[in-house]
UniProtKB/TrEMBL annotation:
This is Intradiol ring-cleavage dioxygenase. One of its GO terms (molecular function) is oxidoreductase activity, acting on single donors with incorporation of molecular oxygen, incorporation of two atoms of oxygen. Belongs to the intradiol ring-cleavage dioxygenase family. InterPro entries: Intradiol_dOase_C, Intradiol_dOase_core, Intradiol_RC_Dioxygenase. It holds the Pfam family Dioxygenase_C. Keywords: Dioxygenase, Oxidoreductase, Signal. The keyword Oxidoreductase applies. Transmembrane segments: none annotated. Residues 1-21 form the signal peptide.
């Protein structure tokens, strides 16, 4: 190789190294479907959301809690939470004509953004297990906090679900804290409470 060729190869190698060094590590590892957290369109997000089919479904469910920064004490503001789940037949229900991740997640989904106190509330209904009962009832959840990429945390799981076996409990990673919740009847509505700690047990979180 001549001098010009060697110089060009060296410059290309340096550029590739610099580009790689500038790319931050992705928080949370692989996260299929987490991009759906951006699919709220022009909807103005608040700390409360009501999912489709809430009024006509039973048992109705209120999901509430607070989001805290990594110290577990300071309320976290402007955190977007996205949830989705099956209908009462255990299916991710479609209306037809879905785009994006709604093709997989269905239309029973919602988004909130926390206020200054970190609180969040979803009104929905208790999902059913998949028809083959291969997994316990669950609600998927994705987090997007300011200045970092989106990541998933442990699903909401129901303490009283007979499909929530000891083996499944052991496999939980407690991402964001435990997702196992105890349903309580409050004011005629099933209510679950879960506080979330940002970054807890999330790979590459600093």
């Amino acid at each position: 190789m001549n001098f010009k060729t060697n110089l060009m190869l060296m410059l290309l190698s340096m550029a590739a190294t610099a580009c790689h060094a500038q790319q931050p590590k992705k928080l949370g590892g692989p996260c299929e479907g987490c991009e759906a957290i951006y699919e709220y369109g022009n909807k103005k997000l608040s700390a409360t959301d009501t999912l489709p089919k809430f009024k006509q479904s039973s048992p109705q469910l209120k999901i509430m809690g607070k989001v805290f920064k990594a110290d577990g004490k300071t309320p976290a503001k402007d955190v977007i939470i996205y949830i989705y789940h099956t209908n009462r037949q255990g299916i991710y229900e479609l209306k037809g004509g879905e785009t994006g991740w709604a093709k997989r997640h269905g239309f029973i989904r919602g988004w909130i953004k926390t206020g200054a106190d970190g609180s969040y509330t979803f009104y929905t209904f208790r999902p059913a297990a998949y028809p083959d009962r291969s997994e316990p009832e669950h609600i998927h959840i994705t987090i997007k906090e300011p200045n970092v990429n989106e990541y998933y945390i442990d699903d909401y799981l129901f303490e009283d679900d007979p499909l929530l076996t000891a083996n499944i409990r052991k496999k939980q990673q407690n991402r964001g804290g435990s997702g196992i919740v105890k349903p309580l009847l409050q004011n005629g509505m099933m209510t679950i409470k879960r506080n979330i700690i940002l970054g807890k047990n999330i790979p590459n979180y600093e």
